[in-house]
Each structure stands twice: as structure tokens, then as C-alpha cells.
Amino acid sequence: MQFLSRNSATAAETNLRRRPFRLASSVAVIVSAGLVLSSCQSLFEQAYEPSVAPSSNPQIVDEVQKGDPRAQMGAREHPRIVASYGGEYSDAKTERLVARIAGALTAVSENPNQSYRITILNSPAINAFALPGGYLYVTRGLLALANDASEVAAVLSHEMAHVTANHGIERQRREEAEVIASRVVAEVLSSDLAGKQALARGKLRLAAFSRQQELQADVIGVRTLGEAGYDPYAAARFLDSMARYSQFSSVDPDADQSLDFLSSHPNAPQRVELAKRHARAFGPEGSHGETGRDYYLNGIDGLLYGDSPQEGFVRGQTFLHGQLGIRFDVPQGFQIDNKVEAVLATGPGDVAIRFDGVADSQKISLPNYISSGWVTGLLPDTIRTISVNGLEAATARASADRWDFDITVIRIGPQIFRFLTAVPKGSPALETTAAQLRASFRRIRPQEAASLKPLRVRVVTVGSNDSVGTLSARMMGTDRKLELFRLINALGPTSTVTPGMRVKIISE
């Protein structure tokens, strides 16, 4: 069961936003070929050759792309794509790393006149994709999973291939307007408008290509990878890593994976073999190119992992948000999924929970807010005013098709926080689940909020007394420490570590 969309049916819903205090950032890494490459070379030289000064008259992507209809198409969709992934990720070290990798690829690009604008997305999802006109995107989640520069280069060269082959234009000619909405939320939340998140997700179809186009991009990408001096076998290697991670993170077979790479980039074994076959044109595995592992690990050391402070933190069965000053617990056996648009949780017996927030500008009573038209199937006689740990609140029940719902709204200052609990019709789990949520919701003290720290990728050197077991025990933010440690370090089930080896762990 999943909840995917935000809704804005009424005036009260217009400002629906769980995190109204998100701070915008602007961190796009700009890389281009041809004339624009001179600007990128200045960036690399500043990073790795301090004695070299930047150009006094650099060419910038915006100038090169001026008048290009493909770039204009990408520019229109860019804000929506960025919004759907939680904004842009700002970190100078990571930006220099991605620029270094992309610069090596653009130098051997099939189209030297093509410019690229690369944006690092502030999302734990594992994804990279392209829009027409040279707009390339890579998530920090993908950077955290990759183990060397050649693996990131493999992904970027594949996406660059889509751009040079004009696949986005070809696909857009066939694209029909589509709005993606949640099965369950659509049944209970009225909406005359699609909502920004649903529109953004629909536009992510711009990143979906046909099988033939994907295979063509694979061929071009592997060739570019090898010609740029990277290990050409990295493409097949990283496809395997992403597939393993997808299996690890997919607790619910119906879970939303629309923001992940493999949702639009199928990972059939035949495709992996095809990538290896094209890589063999450069020689046997290990005979050509570099992996760039050391400088890559240096570049991602300290990279934000998982949830960002702006989106709150998931710690086991608990959701905490320091900036909003709130927390709550879900029952044992539930899996929390902290999405941009809402906090979602699924549990046994097809029980589902959605938590979000709406701006409370009108200061209407909570019973009136519940009955203001945003709940379909509302049972008006069930509306009750209650108190939740000293906070003003109200509850109600709704019924629609195959589902029963509990709606709980809680007011804190200028916001109304909302719990929507859904169960199959007649399930006794509705009251127990909703009651536990209500009882656990509370404000957190400033000291508790200040103690919340995000998780980060930490690169450590294996010591003489270290083992896979001791290193994985240092992992934070997961109950499956050993499994995740092996995944993020591309270690097989029987692989070991040796002294002096550098590995990634997840910790504060």
C-alpha cells in the first residue's frame, strides 16, 4: 500500500506542505563541451591545480544553450524535477568531484557542441537521468552507493548518450499527459487539481526511454567510458550494485520506487551481459582504464546519507523533525518511508499511514477543518474534539470503497499536522493503530531537537583488528547493519576486508 500524491482541493489545502520551512539552495554543477569546456577546465584546475586562475571571460551554459529549443524544454521541466527530489544538494567537495568526472566524459563526447548542466539532487533515492537539452541529474543517494569514479562515470555517460541521441525529443513526441496519483489517497482525499508532486512525478516520464533507446545509450555510454580513461566494466558492475540495493530497500513489493534508477532503467541480466560485451572491446577486465577509487572516496567522505534535516529523521519506528519540533512512533512491524511529500508507513494486514502538514492561515476550528471538503467519504457524526499530549486535536472516521480511515488533525501554532490511517474495510487494526499514533505524537524539547544529527558517509581505513563484523557494527540508521555494509561497499556474501583497505560506513 502506498500514498503518493499531495492534494489541494480547497482553499485550506492550497498550502499543503509537510515541511513549510525548507530552505532553498542552488548548487547545480555546470559542465559543457566545446567552448563551454574552457570554463569547466578552470573549475577542475582550481580544485586540483591551485596555481591556475579561472578564466576572466568564461563561457557559461546559459549562453551556449540560448535559443536551443531542446534546452528550453529541459529548462521548463527542471524546477519540477528538482522539487520532486527535495531540492538541490549543496556541497563544494561533492560538486568538484562530479565536475571532475563529467569533465573527463565531455572531453570525448560524440557531440563536442553539446553543453551539460549537471544537478546533484538532495535525495537518498538511487537515480540519475537526463532531460532534453543537456540537463543531467544525479542523486546523492547514487553517489553514496557508488564505490569509485568509474561507476559514476558509467551512469553519467549513459545519460549523456540519451542527450546526444535526442532520445528525449523522440519520446516526448509520443508522450501523453499523465498525472500519477495514489490508489488509496485518491479514494479519501478530494482533489480538483493534480498537486505539484503528482505533476512532477508525471513529468519524470521524460526520463523514461524505450528498451531500444536504453540499449543504444548503453553502447554509447560504455564506449565513452572507455575512451575517457575509465574502467569500461564499471557499467555492468554498478548495474549489479543498484539491483542489489533495490532488492534490499524493497520491503513491500508494492512500494513506490518511481524515483529510483531501475524503475526507468531495466536491469535485465541480458543488459548487464551486453555492457560487459561492449567493455571487452577495450580488453579483458582490469586491463584498461582507472577506477578512480581513492579520489572518489575522498570526494564523498562526509556526504549526507538518508534523510536531510529539512525532511526530518527516521530512527527505527520513530520519526523526528527537529525544525518542526515534533516526533511520533509507528507500531512495531511497520516500515517508515520518509518521502518529500509526506511521511508514509506500511504495516501488517495492509495497514497504511500517511502523515503531513498544512498551513493553518485561516485559524478555523479543527472540526470545521475536517469537514471543509478535503475528506471524501467522511462520516460527519464521528468528528470529535480531543487533546493529544496537551495539544488541540480532532478525529473523525471515513469510509470509501474497500477502505476504512481514521483522520486525526493536530494544531501547533500556524500548522495543522494530519494523520491518515487506512485499513481494509472491517479491520480491527484501525483503532489500535490510530490510537498509538495519537498517543506517541508530541513536541520535542529544544535540547532533544539540537541533538538530532543527520547520517553521513564516513570513509575509514581498515585496521589490523577490523573485520566485516566489527566495521558493520559501527553502522547507524539501520537494523540490517551487516547487509547494508556489504551493499555500500560492493562486498559479496563471503568477501572479507584487509588492513589498509578503505571502506564506507554510515554514522553521524
What does the model show?
Helix 6 (149-164) crosses helix 10 (211-227). By secondary structure, the protein is α+β, with helices and mostly antiparallel strands. Helices cover 35% and strands 21% of the residues. The chain has three domains: 23-246 and 258-305, no CATH class; 309-451, Mog1/PsbP, alpha/beta/alpha sandwich (Protein Transport Mog1p, Chain A, 3-Layer(aba) Sandwich), CATH 3.40.1000; 455-507. The strands form four sheets. Strands 9-10-11-15-14-13-12 form a seven-stranded antiparallel β-sheet. It has a four-stranded mixed β-sheet with strand order 1-2-4-3. Mean pLDDT is 75; it is low at 1-66, 167-209 and 251-264. The protein starts with 28 loop residues before the first strand and ends with a strand. The protein contains 19 helices and 18 strands.
C-alpha geometry: elongated
CA-based gyration radius: 24 Å
Counted up, domains total 3
Report helical residue fraction: 25-40%
Strand order of the largest sheet: 9-10-11-15-14-13-12
Mean pLDDT: 75
Largest sheet: 7 strands, antiparallel
What is the overall number of helices? Answer: 19
How many strand units?
18
Please state roughly what percent of the residues sit in beta strands, choosing from under 5%, 5-15%, 15-25%, 25-35%, 35-45% or over 45%.
Answer: 15-25%
CA distance, first residue to last residue: 31 Å
Poorly predicted runs: 1-66, 167-209, 251-264
Class inferred from helices and paired strands:
alpha+beta
